[in-house]
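Deliverable D5.2: sample structural annotation.
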Amino acid sequence: MKIRHHRTLLLWLTTFLLGAAFQGSSSWVDEYKEPTSRIIGAALADNFAWDRLTVLCDNIGNRLSGSPALEQAIRWAVDEMRKDGLENVRAEKVMVPHWVRGNESLEITQPSPQKLVMLGLGDSVATPPEGMEAEILVVRNYDELEANASKVPGKIVVYNVPYTGYGQTVQYRANGATRAAKLGASAILLRSVGLAGLRTAHTGDLNYNQAFPKIPAAAIPAEDASRLQRMQDRGERVKVRLKMEAHLEPDAESANVIAELRGREKPEEIVVMGGHLDSWDVGTGAIDDGGGCLVTWSALRVLKNLNLRPRRTVRVVLFTNEENGLRGGLGYRDQHRNELANHVMMLESDSGVFRPQGFGISGNARASAVVREIASLLRGIAADMISTGGGGADIGPSVQAGSIPSMSLEVDGSQYFMYHHTAADTPDKLNPTDMSLGVAAVAVMVYVVADMPTRLGQ
């Protein structure tokens, strides 16, 4: 009863705020005030998106490309979309890489035995079956690595690189193994790329340069990287034993999951929204990116249930293999290349579904101006902020090939990199009402873009 009371109060407050936000405005978006109110009301009427996310995460779990769990999730999504009454539901085949983590462990062997937390990096090679034991060399950046080049051969290099932002720090995950292998390192341990907290390791994909040896690579928590740094700084000789069974198997069959609401006047013109259904093999893939899938999928469901059929077709795509290959995004581009010219806009949600703040937009000045006007409809739920540079990894190949305006759902991401690629990526980190607000914001934006008389940016 208490939860129902709070939701009723929220709906009343939202209606009041929407009314206040709409007063005094006068533009072409005025005709969308009424459907906006209906969309927001329907999205906030329950916790449907979060509830369905918990089914995906609790019953199926994490969904690494090539795994039986991902294939189960694909079948589940297709079945549920058909139950929702969505149109043209299908799974479009994509071949994906199949990396298997296997058993893995890390421990200090000198000066005294101590187990450490670790996660192998995606696509890493294995150690020898018996593992490898070697002295470590801790460096804070590439400059320190190069300055100590004579000490690197045979060592396990530990990158204790402070997290200063994902874009700045992720280069060490992507290229750190090759940089160390070039100087003769036997393996690397990487301070996790993410916010420090609760001694969690953050996995993620790496890149090998074929010109140099492939060496095992694993992430360790910030706390353990700092410990190893302190021990080295005290002049202690530290050795560790690393064991990893990681290996690549032949490419596996997977699929992008697609559903639509066909346009009433211009069905050949398409507005796409979506996220990626695959995840890393730790946690349950709620934040990255089950939530993005469920927010966009639920937005389409809301439009269908309200019988709001726009002029153009709205298509939701749950992409496969974003995490370690981007085969889903590339496959969508290749399979739909002939219709990319008819893609009006593509939107991706892959930043977690915390409280929505607005959208990012990449397009011409006309597209940006129109999106700002549409966002004014969302002022009552404080999701009207518009920034430049919207897009996403999965939609990127199609956006580039077709010169398509692209958008991203922008949220309060202050905690995103606390859980990113960790065992702590579970649904309880997300607020059900925040997800419902995300559904509302996406549904309004996509509906208006798909329904307005002219194409976005024209």
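Annotation notes: The radius of gyration is 24 Å. The first strand starts at residue 87 and ends at 100.
The annotation will be released with the project's public dataset once the embargo ends.
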